[in-house]
Amino acid sequence: MSAEIEASCLHDRPGDPQRRGLLIIISSPSGAGKSTLARRLMAWDPTIRFSVSVTTRPPRPGERHGVDYHFIDRPTFARMAAGGELLEHAEVFGNHYGTPRAQVLEAIEEGRDILFDIDWQGGQQIRNSDLADDVVSIFILPPSIAALEERLRGRGQDPEEVIARRMAKARDEISHWAEYDYVFVNDDVDCTAERLRAIVTAERWRRSRRPGLVAHVRGLMEEFESGYQQG
Ligand code: ADP
Ligand code: 5GP
Q1: Residue 31's closest CA among 130, 123, 117?
Q2: Angle at the Cα of 226 from the Cα atoms of 225 and 231, rounded to 5 degrees
Q3: Element (DSSP H or E) covering residue 76
């Protein structure tokens, strides 16, 4: 089978039974590679939408408002949280982060997958919400703590004290690994990306996520009932 045909069969095709969108949650200690893997997954299937969080953290160089995050001030964040506008929210490294509820509901209803780069606290809150059945959660582990530190430094984004804070939080984040459906040790990034694609492909085909199957099977039964004659 050619790569093109194989690729097209792994994505939804016209005529496939209609399905609900997936909530793909990826968590990891900072530096293990979740943003890299998220980007790879969305490049493979551009219909997957990234859940753009709100945060009170200031933008880093190169980050764009509305693309990487919605950068908001603390009073606005507090108002959104109090008004129930956030599906989940948490404090990470002294800043507040949250997922706007509206964009998630809209995506699921349209049958679109939405990808979350959120910490274990957010993962837990979404798994305990009424959207739990739509979730597939993935935890990314580094091959070693030394590799984690090397990746944080290699990324060249953070001053020394921020790297130290991220390393200190890593232990806490890693301790939640067993709450996730799938756990990958991100050694070779190409392999991890391929495994992630396999998970997303399989999860899309769960019977419970294909409400369109009911209509299809009803159609098959109607063919029998209308006196289908064997050829
Ligand atoms: P996170 O989003 O989890 O904080 P990033 O995706 O930003 O992590 O990755 C941190 C750094 O490690 C980046 O420079 C990235 O290119 C690199 N990286 C990611 N995965 C791997 C891997 N499997 N092997 C080596 N380096 C990696
Ligand atoms: P960063 O500041 O490096 O972008 O993100 C710091 C941490 O906050 C990461 O672990 C990231 O996954 C997490 N995070 C980002 N957005 C959200 C969110 O909306 N909710 C929660 N709970 N965590 C988030």
Answers
A1: 117
A2: 100
A3: helix 74-82
The structural domains of the chain, with segments of one domain joined by +, span: 3-50+113-225
* CATH 3.40.50.300 correct for 3-50+113-225: yes
Please report the DSSP string for 77-113 in residue order. Answer: HHHHHHTT-EEEEEEETTEEEEEEHHHHHHHHHTT--
Give the ligand 2 atom nearest the CA of 30.
10
| Residues contacting 65, CB < 8 A, separation 6+ | 59, 71
* Structural tokens at position 115: 């990808």
Distance CA 209, CA 19 (A): 5
Structure tokens belonging to residue 215: 């209509």
What pTM does this model have?
Answer: 0.93
Q: How far apart are CA 78 and CA 156, in angstroms?
A: 32
Say how far apart CA 182 and CA 203 lie, in whole Å: 11
> Of 70, 106, 102, which Cα lies nearest the Cα of 87?
102
Instruction: Among 50, 155, 185, 194, say which to mutate for ligand 1: greatest number of ligand atoms within 8 Å of CB.
Output: 155
- CA of residue 37 to ligand 1 center, whole Å: 8
**Phi/psi-derived region of residue 39, left when phi > 0, alpha when psi is between -120 and 50, beta in every other case:** alpha
pLDDT, one tens digit per residue, over 181-196 is 999 999 999 999 999 9
Residue identifier of the C-alpha nearest atom 24 of ligand 2: 118
Read off the pLDDT of residues 47-92 as tens digits, 9 standing for 90 and up. Answer: 999 999 999 999 988 999 999 999 999 999 999 999 999 999 999 9
